[in-house]
User: Fold this.
Amino acid sequence: MQALYAQLLVGLINGSFYALLSLGLAVIFGMLNIINFAHGALYMMGAFCAYFLLNIAGIGYWPALIIAPIVVGIFGMILERTMLQWLSGLDHLYGLLLTFGIALIVQGVFQNYFGSSGLPYAIPDELKGGMNLGFMFLPIYRGWVVVFSLVVCIATWFLIEKTRLGANLRAATENPTLVRAFGINVPRMITLTYGLGVGLAALAGVLSAPINQVRPLMGADLIIVVFAVVVIGGMGSIMGSIITGFALGVIEGLTKYFYPEASNTVVFVLMVLVLLVKPAGLTGRAA
Amino acid sequence: MSALTDDTLPTSPRAIRDEMIVFAAMAVLLAMVPATGIYPFFVMQALCFALLACAFNLLIGYGGLLSFGHAMFLGTAGYCTAHALKVWGFTPELGILVGVAAAAALSVVTGFISIRRQGIYFSMITLALSQLLYFIYLQMPFTHGEDGIQGIPQGYLFGVFNLANPTVLYYVVLAGFLGGFLLIYRTINSPFGEVLKSIRENEQRAISLGYKTDQYKLLAFILSGTIAGFAGSLKVFVAQNASLTDVHWTMSGEIVLMTLVGGLGTVFGPVVGAFVIIAMQQYLAGFGQWVTVIQGVIFVACVLTFRRGVIGEIAHYFRRSL
Assistant:
């Protein structure tokens, strides 16, 4: 039973990353109509940013949790301003191709300087050790990751669904011209939204740095699983991406316990099953 | 969807004539390669990828469907052909048949699943399916995991042509490429191809005209996957191995890049693109990981400034369809 709970916890942690990443993808898709293939690379940049902050500037985990998403978010906004904005009005596929190219560049540059092996990032002192819950041993850092990302997800949901800013954002997705007529600077809003989505990816990167090692390709394979999560969830609603992300992480963890051979493939198999039954995805609107 | 290839000209007798002239020139040039002293292995490899890119282009350029998982057909056919040759001791033609049949079966299944969603969802689904296969091949015993299937016997095609002879092998690969190319060309210029183009331009209208567009798209997907598989089977004889790199999604990205560089939705673009990218990998190999960065830069540059690709730009300049 100990092993089952441990795998469930691993599943919840992976689920947190899936949720944070697919949430960022959904936010970006909503405003820019672009599937951000560079999301995995930006997640990796978040982790590296935390690593640099610690090893070059001596800045620890807690400030990195804020600084890294801002730095990577600004990098993302520069990308949006210099490249992505020229694609508005073109076929969606060009956005996918452009961000794929950006991902290749970013990952290639990091691979050149850091090889493919992982760099260690220590768990902050405050979150070291673990708790004995009676039925299992809970490493505090892992518990923290799950709780913290859940809070961030809910906060993002609140920002977009319940605040005035979010209302403007959703309105701009529906009808940019009309929203502009109300005096809202839509291009700036798009840039900021891209920054927000990228920041969420970078935040996931910082959270994952102490658990998984910091590697140039850490986001490359993860992003494809996240795409499968997105297809399953359908990106129709923000809450949908969050729930799907966590749920799939847990299912993956359970598979690792009961039938480890399928743990790499279970998300994709689920995607196939969902597509056969409900092509639009679980929370998606009809295509 | 129309933004993809916004200025393809309607097929006219003149266009067909132009394309036939270019095709003849291409065939003659390629047939002369063994006489020139160019490293034949490089050209053979490029020909396999050119056929693969052409098969991919059939979907994106004429059906508007961006498959990001075409490596799965390349890899599946490669593994099956390699296994049939090495373990079962099949003759080359039967080995190719096994590979192509496997790719065809795979494209029926994956096509049925992925055609259910459109646009970028379609791309993500094909990508996820190919990654699913990657993990399956990683674990299945017959693929030998990270090692791949190596030391594949080349044998005698139809009992006559000795594929271990580089010149003979070259002409066999060339014949395979030209045959596949003509099949695609014929498809594009058939009534079926016209319906595909109409789906790319405006799927809703095609539906309202009474076309069962899903069936057309599925058929195009199967045809594309099967030809891609054929390219994968041919590649086994050239490389004499089948490995995981052929199934990995970065390979799918390279296929997209080849087509994009040459020109989406042009007849000859994928061929030119494949030669450019393979040559680049060959001659820039010394730069190690920077090759990935260079490929990324080409991707970005193509999407931002050069969307028509090499052949697309030439065709646009001369106001011809190529």
